[in-house]
Amino acid sequence: MRITRRGRAMFFFIALGVCLVGVALTLNVGWIILNWRRLAPMIIGIPFFGLLIVGLILNTVFLVREVRRNEQQDSFLNAVTHELKTPITSIRLYLDTMRRREIPHQQQQEFFAVMSEDTDRLMATVEQVLKAGELGQRVRSQVRVRVDMDQLVEEAVATAMLRYHLDPDAIQLERRQLQTGSSFAVAGNPEELRTAVLNVIDNAVKYSPDGARLTIVLSVESDAWVMVSVADQGLGIPQPQLKRIFRRFYRVPNRSILRVKGTGLGLFLVRSIARQHGGDAFAESAGEGRGSTIHLQLPRILTSGEPVEGRATV
Predict the structure, then answer these.
(1) 314 part of a folded domain
(2) Which of 122, 145, 229, 253 could form a disulfide linkage to 217, CB 3.0–4.6 angstroms apart?
(3) Do residue 158 and residue 97 come from a single domain?
(4) Is the same domain home to 127 and 88?
(5) What share of the chain in percent tops pLDDT 70?
(6) What is the dihedral of CA 8, 13, 17, 23, to 10 degrees?
(7) pLDDT tens across 117-172, in order?
(8) Which of 293, 296, 76 is closest to 204 using CA atoms?
(9) What pLDDT score was predicted for residue 274?
(10) DSSP letter at 217?
C-alpha cells in the first residue's frame, strides 16, 4: 500500500509538471503571437517564460527525486530494523533458554557460538551504518600509511570464509603482476580499505543463491593502479543498474524475492572509500543470471614511495 501511494504521488507530480509546462508554453506562444511586432515585450517575455518553464521542469524533477529518496530511506530503515532485530531476538532466545533450563555443557558451547555470530552480525550492521553516515557527511583528512593489498585481501578472504562457512575452494585468489617484483602497495587507511574489500566479497556471496563460487583477481594495471576484482557466478546485474548499485540505500529491484539481507549501503561504502583514496569502484555483468564482477581500483605506491596522482578512469 505504501508503494502504491508513492507511485500515485509520483504520477501526480509528473502530470502536474507536464500540465504546468504545457500552460507555460501556451502562454509563451500566445505572448509571441500578440506581441510579435513589439520588440520590447518580446525581449522581456520570451526569457521570462523560458525561465518559468525551466523552473517548472526542475521543480518536477526535484519532487520526483524526493519521493524516490523517501522510498529508498524507508526501505533502508526496514532493512536496518530487520538486521538489528533478528540477531537481538536470537541472542535473547538463547539466553532465556539457558536461564530457564539446565543445558548440557556441549550444547551451551553451541549456544555461545551462535550468539557470538549474532553479535558479530549486529556489530557489522552498526559499523556499516555509522561509517556510511561519516562518509556521507564529510571528507575526512587522514594520515595514510602504506598498505599491502595482497595481505589485506588474504585476511578479508579468510574472514569471509569463516563468516559464511564456505568450502575451502569457494574463493579462488589470483595475483597478476606486470613486472617481476612489483608490489600491491597503496597509501590509505587499512581499516577502511578492509571494509571496502569485505563489502565487495559479502555482496558477491549474498547474491550467489546456488552457492558462492568467487574468483578474486589482484592485479597491477598500467603500473599505476592496484585492482581488486571480485567475480561471482550469481544473479548478475541488469545493464541499467550497473551504476545505480553504488548509490546510498539502493538495491536492485526484483531481488527482494530472494530475501537477501542487507541495508543497501555496502557498495555505496565501497565507492566512497575508493574515491576518498583517489581511486574508484565500478561493476561489470553480462546480464541477469550470468554473474557479475565488482572492481576496486586504487592508486599504487611506486618504488620511490610516491603515490600516483590522478583518479581512476573507467
Answers:
(1) no
(2) 229
(3) no
(4) yes
(5) 69
(6) 70
(7) 778 777 777 776 777 666 655 555 466 889 999 999 999 999 888 888 888 899 99
(8) 293
(9) 93
(10) E
- Strand arrangement of the beta sheet that strand 214-221 belongs to: 171-176, 214-221, 225-232, 292-299, 280-285
* Secondary structure of 137-166 as H, E, C letters: HCCCCCCCEEEEHHHHHHHHHHHHHHHHCC
Contact 263, 80 (CB under 8 A): yes
Give the residue from 138, 166, 195 where a domain finishes: 138
Calpha distance 74→69 (Å, rounded): 9
| Continuous segment of H or E residues that includes residue 236 | none
Domain end marker among 138, 167, 186: 138
Q: How many domains does the chain have?
A: 2
For residues 195 and 278, what is the distance between their CA atoms, to the nearest angstrom? Answer: 16
Q: Each residue of 53-102: pLDDT tens digit? A: 777 777 777 777 776 677 666 666 666 676 677 778 888 888 888 888 88
CATH number for the domain including 205?
Answer: 3.30.565.10
- Structural domain harbouring 78: 1-138
Q: What does the pLDDT read at residue 115? A: 86
Partners of 300 in beta bridges: 186
pLDDT of residue 142: 62
Q: How far is CA 164 from CA 72, 117, 296, in A?
A: 27, 10, 22
Q: Residue with C-alpha cell 594520515?
A: 143
SS3 assignment, position 54: helix
pLDDT in tens, 182-222: 688 999 999 889 989 999 998 899 888 888 899 999 998 88
**If residue 243 lies in a helix (H) or strand (E), which one and from where to where?**
none
